[in-house]
Amino acid sequence: MFGLMAAVLAAALLVGLGAHAMMSHPSSCPAPVVAHVAVSSEFVPVASRLGSYFNSQHKMRGGHCEQVAIEAAAPASVATALAGGAAGGGTGDRRAPAVDAWIPDSQLWVDIARSTSGGAKRVPATGPVLARTALLIAMPRTAAARLPAFGSSVGWDFLLPQSAGGPSAALGLNVQFPDPTQTSTGLSTLIEFRNMLGYGRPARFALARFAFTVQVVPGTQGGNSLVSLDKPPSRGGAANPVTITTEQAALQYDTTHPQQPLAVRYPAQGSTELTFPYLVTTTSRPAASVAKDFGGVLRSDYATALVRFEGFRTSTGRAGHWPAGYGLKRHEPKLLPEPGPGKPAAALRAWHGMSLGERLLALNDVSSSMAFKPVPGGPSLEQMLGHAASLGIARFPDSTQMGLWAFASHLPGGSSYKQLVPLGPLPSSFGLVTRRQAIVHLAGTAVTVPNAGAALYRSILAAYKQMVATYQPQHANAVIVLTAGVDSPRDDISSASLLKELKSLYNRSKPVNVVVIMLGRAGNFEVMRQIAAATNGKAYDITSPPQIRRVFFHAMGRRICQPHCPPGR
To answer: Is 0.85 topped by the overall pTM?
Structure first.
């Protein structure tokens, strides 16, 4: 009965305060000891009011006044700082504030903060949960009305592309995926996808398809992607935006968009839940005492009322007076088990591997072997290479750096290989066109050199040395060899010599991979496989241009397990 009365009084107080919310910075008091509390942005309204209330009490301990300072800080940044042993956890270029206590929006970031020995010593494994909010799939109600598929039951796979087990591409879905490196919503979803898809080769293949077909939305206030739903679809883009968000964010969105509310669905397999634990992280005894006393206020009946007023569930899962329609549930939805230790960090490593910028040197075969037609009357290997190049290059983002070489035993000038386009960003200018356009054009119009062998091994070695010498971290550095796989010049180095050189040059801390795409059946694919394997790369045999799609996604998927991919996988 007392708890109910406290909730009613607190709600009335909130309405009365209106825009005159109390500041949570320390107020004037003698010789204050201040505990700095880093708080996930969506929980700041609750923490600020409680901080102001705590500071107004001027509680004394050991002759000092206890005060708290509430600072909004992205949980991902705080987790990184704490894992690295730093005392700060803010975002941006300014110096991060001290973190004496922490309220992240998920236990996931706690696990990441504790992933190092220093972080494990400083950050408790658990803390009292202050609030909860479940994940749900959301669309603008107008878009959902057009899609019978967004009916009473929608699963996690609704966000996946059709090729990875998702709904039909005819639905025109534009998946807005919260960046998992910045948001708990995105990271939780990524972990669930990995649980659902599995961890073998097909799973990596499917996850790569997902990563390269969604629109990744940077973390915004509250770490949700709903602001992206306000934007009209790009010209020629999918017309039906869909995203993953939280109950609390959906409620806030509907409040600020009364004419454009959301339709939401809890994933049919079960939702995951974001929890807001309170963790004392300081090694200072005075600051720790203040933080612990503030923890008592955070768990009070007054705090519980504030939590419900702001659209969260309480620590016990109790919701506020939510609107009953359009998919939100006041009773707690079916929840999936929490991920085990290590899964958040593993999911981030997988995503980071697929998100590395590309730095690629394409090495195109223009020897006479490329004039061969595997099927009488069909395209030549040279034509297949041009088609494969146009399909493949179109899939690389503008952040990709790429260059193009051609090779044969005797090119004009007496060399066995020649640079056609130097390495650089695909959207940058190259003459009157972009580098992307130039590479597609030159790869598609290359003319084979009559009666010329390939000088394959010498050309691969030269290209590999070039990429090793100009290696760039934070990029996936690779040599892409498109060839018939036939090496004929007598003056070329042997395959054994090439393998010895590649094994000597390969550095696991600065990896440059060789990826071989052998066109047709005339070459020795086993040798191509050995050449790629010497650099932890992969060889593919292609007999039709559309197979380049499989090569692309498989190569992206291999980044998840690099540098420990099983041989041949």
So the answer is: no
